[in-house]
């Protein structure tokens, strides 16, 4: 059966995320999956940024190894993920999600919450899920979502448990092949900051679109569009900080964690040598791989809201925050923003000898989780102010 998602034309200008003509409604028989880490704010406060990101990326890895990489729409959310899929393999997907819940609990000591919703019930609730494909390179595109269906499903998951996927039995291991985290933290340039930013629309969509255009215009003053990763790619760290996490992800069912660590260590050592010397090994070209890593990084995306992890100088960051604050006071948007000095990357690499590898970027000291917490703190403060206007009906629930 032809894949209707892959039939959607791609676009290459990020500003086209605001063009309704780029989006296509999902079929009624498709499903939407939502996953998030419970109490992620507390985990981030404990410095467990990498584990939280690993849990979110694990969902995408498990589904990718079930459906095929690039063959379905998904979005990494820092402390979770969202995706959509055809009904053909829904039973296998449930098993993959259940196994991932168990793996996250046993290996990362986090609770992952996951749920599945049919498109028919999302539309019956007055929402929709429309998908576009933003091509970041000739080999990789990322899904963009609009229609408020993703946020509706997330809200339902957090307030009801009738769509939750139960955890698999103890010891169940999902297929997380390709999930890795070997790059060094990406440091903000000069006196700048890495900004984690989430901008939510309210009822006035033209006003929201105008704010997003202003944000993109400001960031486009930078030749790299505020991309935190240089065009030659990130730096390689050895031994990788995420060695244990990667070993746990790629340990065979029933296999030794020591052996898995040794394999990751030796593979990383070889990669480090090739990276530093520039030597090629068969079809693997380390310089090309690093450049594609920069291209294939999801530092900006759209999923019923604008999500960005960007590198800004101090003046840009101040201008951006002032612009957003004014727009929020005018009830055009709601936003959360968090400044930090580093970004971290979590990757899904099916093979190092082709270009279809994915790289998920988040702030290295709180990231999207902290940005969401900042938004919620402002929201709660407004609600406790006696003279504050009531929150708009479109206020998203995080």
SSE arrangement:
Blueprint: E1 10-11, E2 24-25, E3 31-37, H1 40-45, H2 49-67, E4 74-76, E5 80-85, H3 90-108, E6 112-118, H4 119-124, E7 130-135, E8 141-146, H5 149-159, E9 179-180, E10 186-187, E11 193-201, H6 205-219, H7 243-250, H8 257-277, H9 286-295, E12 300-302, E13 306-312, H10 314-329, E14 333-340, E15 342-348, E16 358-363, H11 367-384
Parallel strand pairs: 1-7
Antiparallel strand pairs: 2-7, 3-5, 3-6, 4-5, 7-8, 9-15, 10-15, 11-13, 11-14, 12-13, 15-16
Helix pairs in contact: 2-3, 6-10, 7-8
Give structural notes.
The chain has 398 residues and is an alpha+beta fold. It has one domain. Helix content is 37%, strand content 21%. The chain is built from 11 helices and 16 strands. The strands form 4 sheets. Strands 1, 2, 7 and 8 form a 4-stranded mixed sheet that branches. A 4-stranded antiparallel sheet has the order 4-5-3-6, sandwiched between helices. Helix 6 packs antiparallel against helix 10 and helix 7 packs across helix 8. The chain is globular, with a radius of gyration of 20 Å. The two termini are 36 Å apart. The C terminus is likely disordered.
Low-confidence stretches are 391-398
Counting DSSP H or I runs of 4 or more residues, the number of helices is 11
- Outline type: globular
Mean pLDDT: 92
Total count of domains: 1
Largest sheet: 4 strands, mixed
Characteristic terms for this protein:
398 residues; four-stranded mixed beta sheet; disordered C terminus; 16 strands; single chain
